[in-house]
Amino acid sequence: MTTPAQLRELFLFEHLTDAQLAWLVESADVVSYKAGETVLAEGAQAECFYVLLSGTLTLLRKVRGDEVEITRTDQPGVYAGATQFYLEDQVDQVYGATVRAVTDCEFLALPATEFAAKFRQWFPMAVHLLQGMFVGLNNANELIAQRERLLALGKLTAGLTHELNNPAAAAVRATGTLRERFAGMRHKLAMLADGHFDGLQLHRLTKIQEKFIERMASTEELTPMQVADREDELGEWLEERDVNGGWDLAPVFVAAGITTSDLDELSNAVDPGFLEPALRWLAYTVETENLLIEVKESTKRISELIGAAKQYSQLDRTPHQDVDVHEGLDATLVMMSGKIGPGVRIVKDYDRSLPHVPAYPAELNQVWTNLIDNALHAVDGDGTVTIRTARDGDNVLVEVIDTGPGVPPDLKRRVFEPFFTTKGVGKGTGLGLDVSWRVVVNRHGGDMRIESEPGDTHFQVRLPLREAAAQ
Questions:
Q1: Architecture of domain 318-464
Q2: Contacts 24+ apart (CB under 8 A), 422-431
Q3: Is the pLDDT confidence value at 419 over 80?
Q4: How many helices (H) and strands (E) does the chain have?
Q5: Which of 21, 201, 316, 404 is the least buried, fewest Cβ under 10 Å from its Cβ?
Q6: All CATH 2.60.120.10 domain ranges in the chain, comma separated
Q7: Architecture of domain 4-122
Q8: d(CA 415, CA 430)
Q9: What is the DSSP string of 47-75?
Q10: How far apart are CA 208 and CA 240, in angstroms?
Q11: DSSP code, position 441
Q12: Which residues, in sequence order, are CB contacts of 286 under 8 Å at separation 6+?
């Protein structure tokens, strides 16, 4: 048993009245534990508020199924257990950590329900303040997190819209030009119907143009200097043969990979008086083919962007599944392409042989978004961001590496704290890495770390290959 005088020696109770101390003595039990025994277990229903009277205890938390020591102390008066007893049924009353006796220990064990009633009676204003702070902080966290997600979604939507606009505009331009070219081809067909073109030469021309079109798919990529040289060479060839507007035809032929040797073949296949109409017919054909290729590539790009958006948002997919982390990383990069400046180099160092991981892919995509966004902010428009994947034992390792100025040693331990940010005022809420930590560690049973020095900052995410229990 303990006495009111003994309790008053503890810093926790030194300012209580004699009546209050007497109630504690009457209502509490003094319990003993041998070295190595568990006093309370993380996740169990919180029934008692424990105060250390003597001995040494250790406070432990589970990370990926392993117990990690948070603190160790022998100071009388330290407390653990039902530390949120004053909130009663406002929260789920469970033990947030495991307490184990390092040496033989004695605790004052106060029943949480009875203590909550007395605490509210003794300190009504303090209870209101604590409740207000707890509820207010939770509400603020939720509102700010929602706001951050909306802002992030708005930025991603703007970037995606910009990316969609380019191929869509290209397709519109190409279809408009196609309409003009088809009108020109209808005009040529009308000339055929009038007998202006010789049938045999038209047959030769058709065979030659089919040969050129088949070859267009494998046309080599030319440098701007090579393109200019080819256009000059073709322009001179056309000018020597008195072809009107030859300098307008030259770029069309160069884009199709047609050379002077090809034009010599065409010239030998038709009569001299039929050469210019043949060249213009060929120009119509290859330009139309190029425009069709442009429409195809543009619509393909639009389809890829929509697919990336669907992958990123995980529409029509089960929330928990075995996922390839590379799909989420690639989708995130597509969604964030609008934020990647011309001076930023993105390097993908992927190990494609990695197995799938059991995960919530939409939540992981939010993690990749936060990490890549931070890396882009760190390089500030000029640097390299590397996304690397590898196997690390029984985990998949994903690293986002940047060449920015780095995180100072005294701040590295704080980067995962709620509301902590190294960004300027109005540029960050400080919740991105906190949310990422909770998704990786709490939701997936993984691990998240930072290694940083100037010019080389690594944010590391480790995801277990085995099934992780949802928290």
A1: 2-Layer Sandwich (3.30)
A2: 423/377, 427/377, 428/377, 429/144, 429/147, 429/148, 431/141, 431/144, 431/145, 431/148
A3: no
A4: 13, 15
A5: 316
A6: 4-122
A7: Sandwich (2.60)
A8: 8
A9: -EEEEEEES-EEEEEEETTEEEEEEEE--
A10: 22
A11: I
A12: 209, 212, 213, 216, 252, 253, 255, 256, 258
Most confident option among 20-34, 116-130, 337-351:
20-34
pLDDT digits (tens, 9 = 90+) for 214-247: 777 667 777 888 888 888 888 888 888 888 877 7
Q: Are 283 and 253 contacting, i.e. CB atoms less than 8 angstroms apart? A: yes
Identify the band that residue 349 occupies on the pLDDT scale cut at 50, 70 and 90.
Answer: very high
* pLDDT tens column, 360-386: 887 888 889 889 988 998 898 889 999
Q: Mapping DSSP to helix (H, G, I), strand (E, B) and coil, where does residue 448 land? A: strand
Residue 325, judged by CB atoms within 10 A of its CB (0-12, 13-18, 19+), counts as buried
pTM: 0.46
- Does residue 423 register a pLDDT over 60? no
